[in-house]
Amino acid sequence: MYVCGLDAAVDVVGGKWKPMILWALHAGRTLRFGELRRHTEGISEKVLIQQLRELESDGIVHREVYREVPPKVEYSLTSLGTSLNEALIPLGVWGDEHMEQLVANRDCKKEGTAA
Fold this sequence. Notes:
Number of strands: 3
Number of helices: 5
Strand content: 5-15%
Structural class: alpha+beta
Helix content: 55-70%
Distance between the termini: 40 Å
Mean pLDDT: 92
Radius of gyration: 17 Å
Shape: globular
Largest sheet: 3 strands, antiparallel
Strand order of the largest sheet: 1-3-2
């Protein structure tokens, strides 16, 4: 199914929202759906549900349902999710270090000039 390990990893975290969800759940945090939505500003409820289901089916996120009224659902990282998040930290550092240049490059491209 996968060509290499990078192929597998990108398949799991692909898209705009999954890395943001993983980051919101970092450091052993357990969040309810509404809290997760606030931490991933701009995501629709439908997309968040879809992304969480995919992450859960990949074994990255654990979904805990409490049988009470009103129903309570919490999300947390599994050990597999924690290790994936740790692997993403250097990518986040790279983004922090080069964010200004990346923004400048995009702005220049829009204006038709070189950075």
